[in-house]
Hints:
The protein is built from five helices and nine strands; from the N terminus they run E-H-H-E-E-E-H-E-H-E-H-E-E-E.
Amino acid sequence: MSMDILKVTGDRRRYMDLLLLADESPRMIERYIGRGTMYILSGNGCTVGECLVTDEGGGTLEIKSLAVDPEFQRRGLGRMLIEHVEREYAGKYRTLMVGTGDSPLTVPFYESCGFRRSHTVPNFFTDNYDAPIYESGVLLTDMVYFKKHI
Length: 150
């Protein structure tokens, strides 16, 4: 399947199903959905992934949301979205950051994409989400930030 990465210019909420894969709280998504730039990954008329990035100032770009439909995961599509962002913003930003739970699924993925641990926000998930969040059987409590130079 041939894939295209497209910049979203219309209503971003039409991709809410993908956004909710990366962040299960619609209330939290509302905090960033209107900021930054959103890209979708499409093939054969089907949208299978999304990436939303925001300018955090000081030469830092942050991935607020990155998700690939579970049916299409483990095919390099998330990495493809990250590489697109890196190419698109190289020379315009110095650092690309991403915050995620300390999960056995996401941490190795970001490390394999060249990100390195930056810092941790203690109790981020327990303080900001109404219900406990588990990923691969792990209760997410702290937000772990990763960064890489672009």
